[in-house]
Amino acid sequence: MASVADAVVPGQRLGHVQEYIPGAGTYAHQDFLYASVVGIKQITTDSGELPTMSVRRENTQSAVPEIDAIATCKVVRVNPRFAAVNIMVVDGKPCTDDFQGIIRVQDVRATEKDKVKIYNSFRPGDIVRAQVISLGDARSYYLSTAANELGVIFGTSVAGGSLVPISWQEMQCTKTKAIEPRKCAKPM
């Protein structure tokens, strides 16, 4: 297990070229060894030779939304036709890259699609659990909340208090007890 002391950044001096052979992720400059990438320094020894100093990168890749994946998103803006969201988590894995999504008015719920009003379903700042239904256009994934377990999982009221679901289409402010319309997710 590597310690925090073994973590290095580019340009960090690692040792002297008379003590180590430069390996992957390092370079020699004026008799010193330096890190060329962010990672963990490693020293490997071969019999009869100087030890080799290298830097191993961490292999953390971002989760990428796929069709039928469950995504946790934050609503950034709403208009009468759709809610724009930033996808933060896909199937329980955090996204290190930025992915945008759209929840269209016809994808909010499975029944009575013509009666759906986006502003009564989502507000900016809401955290939503949604399903990826299409890769969409070049800018956004298309998401749906048309299942009982999909919808708003956390929200903040107009007064600034947390919202608690009281039905599938209403949430109540913990501060003022005011009721606000939302498309609530069934607790899992």
Task: Explain this structure.
The protein has 188 residues and is mainly β. It has no helices and 16 strands. A 5-stranded mixed β-barrel has the order 8-9-10-12-11. Strands 1-6-7-3 form a 4-stranded mixed β-sheet, with no helix packed on it. The chain has a 3-stranded antiparallel β-sheet with strand order 2-5-4, with no helix packed on it. It is elongated, with a radius of gyration of 25 Å. The two termini are 35 Å apart. The model has no long low-confidence stretch (mean pLDDT 87).
Relative strand content: over 45%
Please tell me the overall pLDDT. Answer: 87
What general outline do the C-alpha atoms trace?
A: elongated
Give the radius of gyration: 25 Å
| String of helices and strands | EEEEEEEEEEEEEEEE
Low-pLDDT regions: none
- Structural class comes to mainly beta
Could you estimate the helical fraction of the residues in percent? under 10%
Largest sheet: 5 strands, mixed, barrel
